[in-house]
C-alpha cells in the first residue's frame, strides 16, 4: 500500500472535510480503467483505491496487470499487495479494509477514487453485505469432497436450490459456490433471501460512477494482444517463482484468468500456445460478463471508449468536476 502524499501541481484544491465525493471508475478488463483513474487523480490531487480481487495479492503482478510504481505518476495506490497469496480474501474482508481507508483519505481532505473490475466487491462496498452464518468446517469439507469427486456438481445443485445466486456466480468459482451452498444448508433458506436482510450500506459519500464502454471488437483485440504480452513478459516465470516460494497451487489467485492456464503449463498439463488461446477465449467471455454485471449498476455515466484516450480522459475529468461543483453549491 503506497503512502506517497505528493500532490501534483495544478490540481484542484482539497474539498472541505464535510464533503465526501467518491468517483468510481468501472468497466471490463482491458478497457483502461487504471489509466483513466490516474488521469483523474492527477487532475484532482486524488488517491486511488483498488477494487480488483487479484491485485490485492502479493506477488501476482504480471497476470493481474498491476500498474508498476514507475507509471503511477506519483499517485498513491491503496489495497494493492496487501494479502498473502495463500490467504482466502472475501468481499467482507475487502469492506473491512476499504471503508476505514476511505475515511482516512477523507480525513486528509483528499478524494478517493475507486477503480477496478470486481463488481461484487464494488457492490459490497457500496451496499454492504448481510451477516451470514459462521463457516462450518464439516459442511465445507463435505461440499469440497463432493466437488472433487464430481466436478461442477455443486454449481448445478446451487442452480436448483438458489437460482438467483447461482446466476451471479461463475460455474468455475468454487469458493463462492461452496459459501452459497453452506449458507443454504446452515440457514435453511437461500442466500439470495438472506442477502436482502441486514445490509449496512456506505453512507456519507456521493458516488460519481464512470463506466468505460469501448467498442466490443476493439476491446477483444486489445485483450488478445495483452494476453500474449503478459505471457511474453514472464508470466510462467512468475508462477514458477510463486510456487517455489511456497504458494500452494490451490491458492485462490491461481484460479484467475492467465494464472490458471500458466499453472497448467508449469505442471506440464498444457502447451504454451494452448494456454494462450484458452486465456484469450476466457478473458473475452469474462469481459462480456463484467459488462452484463455493470450494466445493472445504477447511476453510471458511460464513456464510449478506452481509458487511455485523451478525449475520454478530458470528458471524465469534466464530469467529475461538474459533480464536485454541484456538491460545493
What's the structural blueprint in terms of helices and strands?
Blueprint: E1 21-26, H1 33-44, E2 47-50, E3 77-78, H2 91-107, E4 112-115, H3 119-127, H4 137-149, H5 153-161, H6 163-166, H7 174-187, H8 191-194, E5 206-212, H9 216-232, H10 235-244, H11 259-266, H12 272-294, E6 300-303, H13 310-328
Parallel strand pairs: 1-4, 1-5, 2-3, 2-4, 5-6
Structure commentary:
The structure is a single chain. With 329 residues, the protein is of the alpha/beta class. The chain has two domains: 21-129 and 199-328, 3-Layer(aba) Sandwich (Rossmann fold); 137-194, Histone, subunit A. It has helices spanning 33-44, 91-107, 119-127, 137-149, 153-161, 163-166, 174-187, 191-194, 216-232, 235-244, 259-266, 272-294, 310-328, and strands at 21-26, 47-50, 77-78, 112-115, 206-212, 300-303.
Briefly summarize what is shown.
The protein is an alpha/beta fold and about 325 residues long.
Quaternary state of the chains: single chain
Label the overall shape.
Answer: globular
CATH class of the largest domain, anyone?
A: Alpha Beta
Structural class: alpha/beta
Computed Rg: 20 Å
Amino acid at each position: 500500500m503506497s503512502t506517497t502524499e505528493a500532490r501534483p501541481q495544478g490540481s484542484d484544491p482539497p474539498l472541505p472535510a464535510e464533503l465526501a465525493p467518491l468517483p468510481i471508475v468501472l468497466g471490463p478488463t482491458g478497457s483502461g480503467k487504471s489509466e483513466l483513474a490516474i488521469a483523474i487523480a492527477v487532475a484532482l490531487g486524488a488517491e486511488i483505491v483498488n477494487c480488483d480481487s487479484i491485485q490485492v495479492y502479493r506477488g501476482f503482478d504480471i497476470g493481474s496487470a498491476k500498474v508498476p510504481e514507475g507509471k503511477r505518476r506519483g499517485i498513491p495506490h491503496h489495497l494493492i499487495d496487501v494479502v498473502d497469496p495463500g490467504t482466502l480474501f472475501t468481499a467482507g474482508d475487502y469492506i473491512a479494509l476499504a471503508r476505514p481507508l476511505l475515511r482516512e483519505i477523507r480525513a486528509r481532505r483528499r478524494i478517493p477514487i475507486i477503480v477496478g473490475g470486481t463488481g461484487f466487491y464494488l457492490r459490497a462496498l457500496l451496499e454492504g453485505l448481510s451477516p451470514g452464518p459462521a463457516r462450518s468446517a464439516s459442511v465445507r469439507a463435505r461440499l469440497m469432497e463432493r466437488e472433487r469427486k464430481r466436478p461442477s456438481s455443486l454449481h448445478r445443485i446451487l442452480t436448483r436450490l438458489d437460482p438467483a445466486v447461482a446466476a451471479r456466480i461463475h460455474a468455475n468459482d468454487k469458493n463462492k459456490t461452496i459459501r452459497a451452498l453452506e449458507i443454504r444448508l446452515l440457514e435453511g433458506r437461500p442466500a439470495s433471501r438472506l442477502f436482502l436482510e441486514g445490509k449496512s450500506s456506505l453512507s456519507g459519500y456521493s458516488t460519481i460512477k464512470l463506466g468505460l464502454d469501448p467498442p466490443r471488437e476493439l476491446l477483444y483485440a486489445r485483450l488478445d494482444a495483452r494476453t500474449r504480452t503478459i505471457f511474453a513478459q514472464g508470466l510462467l516465470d512468475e508462477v514458477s517463482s510463486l510456487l517455489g516460494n511456497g504458494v500452494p497451487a490451490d491458492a485462490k489467485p491461481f484460479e484467475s484468468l492467465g494464472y490458471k492456464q500458466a499453472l497448467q503449463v508449469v505442471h506440464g498439463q498444457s502447451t504454451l500456445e494452448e494456454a494462450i488461446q484458452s486465456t484469450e477465449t476466457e478473458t473475452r467471455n469474462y469481459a462480456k460478463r463484467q459488462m452484463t454485471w455493470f450494466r445493472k449498476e445504477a447511476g453510471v455515466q458511460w464513456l464510449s471508449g478506452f481509458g487511455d484516450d485523451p478525449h475520454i480522459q478530458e470528458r471524465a475529468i469534466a464530469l467529475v468536476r461538474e459533480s464536485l461543483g454541484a456538491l460545493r453549491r
